[in-house]
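Need DUF4241 domain-containing protein's 3D structure for a figure. Predict it.
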Amino acid sequence: MAYLDLENLRTVFLDDEALRVRRLQRQSCGSLQVTSGRIVACDPLVQPERLPFVRSVSGRGAFPAELLQHEGRHALAVLWLRDRRGLQPEDLHWEPALLDGQSQNELGDDEFYGYPVDAGVGCFMDADCAAAIAEREARESSANPDHGSYYDDVLDEELGSKDMADHYPLGEGSANNVLIFSSGWGDGSYPSFWALDAAREPVALVTDFMTMQGGDARSEDDKRDDAYLASLSPERLAALEALGAAAIKGDAAAIRPLLDGGLAGANDIVPSLGETALFSAIRMNQLEALRVLLGSAPCPAMPEHLRIEGKAESYSAFARWLKKPRVPGLVELLEQAEAAAAAEPAGGKSLWKRLFS
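Structure prediction for DUF4241 domain-containing protein:
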């Protein structure tokens, strides 16, 4: 079937806390002045004359628009035609926003009709705004024979560091504006979708910049880390954080009781650090802390997601891989502990226990 990621689209209805969990943030980008009811989504610097969508809206006036973003990139842009707080996402029907002559029946699997982006921005505007942009462009050209681009001469300052602008081509107080925002990963082609109520009236228009799938901006590593954090009791979390801090400081005296308490292990991931206490001690060149963390047991395998493929897939390899030389005895300690882990038990004692008995 044609591209339609419902979970992506439905994220526009989530509250701020639910968005935070998914590494998303909501940001207002102004209100669109709808004068004709014919809505355009396009790259306004390249194709301001683009045709409006076939479906029009009955309302006139100012309608709010928002962006959902993650890691500084816009994932979704939504134009609200009705207050979202009064809407039930499960009751809505979604359909592609099409131009005249386009048919959903002509789309293959994962295909879509999108607007082309070549200047790294998208927008929402009423169809009447195209004439205002053309008039402003003509004014700039007439006033300045060396007139460059609309972006350089008009929009650059308005867009600023936020990568969005509520732009009135003919000045504040004029009839039409265009809401401009950076477009996902930049140039490309991006589809828009109508959310329709039971009467098939549009309640929202959403552009999907396709920077995420399934309505979740987290990577698989992020999801794993979040699940791990959720599995920890407050007591165990506190013990792990204390163990990680002690490993970094090289506080061997603080490490012993934490390990003895049984809530924190040397090879457990410390959530705030994203690494184990063993990893931290090696990274920070803390030999005595490492000695206590290893204790009388063989060195455990490095957790898979900490490994650097082909370069550092064990703790001793990690210690050798680091640019700054480790303190004398640190690498040797790790190598002995890893050899003990690999050795078969003999006479009831592992190699590690025999070495230290």
